[in-house]
Write a structure and sequence with these properties.
There is one protein chain. Helix content is 21%, strand content 35%. It is of the alpha/beta class and 188 residues long. Strand 15 (161-165) and strand 16 form a beta hairpin. It folds into two domains: 1-36; 38-185, 3 Solenoid (UDP N-Acetylglucosamine Acyltransferase, domain 1). The protein is globular.
Length: 188
């Protein structure tokens, strides 16, 4: 049996070797758990779609469904605890995105008199959610939409719309013709 010090040293050695391998093969260095645990295996264990992946540092709570080939980045928070959270196929949920099916704003402001607000969240197929964005309860994001980084989405987003800001508002549209995709800004 290993002592605590020996186990700690073995873990350090394992991480160092794995980190060197990742840097050599992919030119990347990841935090301990994200480096050691397979993102695709975790997605399978969570019942996510074929080819989906989710970083180990992502927090997944409650009823969360993720479609085929979607990517859930590091340090994300997926809250399906107060209603279903559904993410479609081929979505990119960037680093540090938080998606909530509840908030406690009214509860806090009322001194506990008002209930928390809850509602399901749906992100349709082929959406991009930019880093550090927050999506609030009851929101639906239409197919092939873009949420700009650092945005707070508190209302529904129509398909093929680019939204940004806090609160998020339409700042452009997504034009698709065959395999050509254009992001057109300045128009809703």
């Amino acid at each position: 049996m290993l002592t605590s010090a020996e186990l700690l040293e073995a873990l350090r050695q394992l991480y160092t070797e794995h980190d060197e391998s990742l840097r050599k093969r992919f030119q990347r260095s990841l935090p301990f758990a994200d480096a050691l645990f397979d993102r695709w295996e975790r997605a399978k264990r969570l019942g996510f779609g074929e080819g989906a992946c989710v970083y180990n540092s992502a927090i997944v709570i409650g009823e969360v469904e993720v479609g085929d080939h979607s990517w859930v980045g590091p340090h994300t928070f997926l809250d399906g605890g107060y209603g279903p959270l559904k993410i479609g196929a081929y979505c990119s949920i960037s680093a540090a995105v938080h998606i909530y099916t509840h908030d406690t704003v009214a509860w806090s402001l009322s001194g506990g008199v008002a209930d928390k607000r809850t509602g399901p969240v749906t992100i349709a197929d082929r959406c991009y959610i930019g880093s550090q964005s927050i999506i609030g309860p009851g929101v639906s994001i239409g197919a092939q939409s873009v949420v700009a980084a650092n945005s707070f989405v508190s209302r529904d987003v129509p398909p093929r719309t680019i939204v940004g800001g806090s609160p998020a508002k339409a700042i452009g549209r997504v034009d698709i013709a065959g395999d050509e995709i254009r992001l057109v800004y300045g128009e809703g």
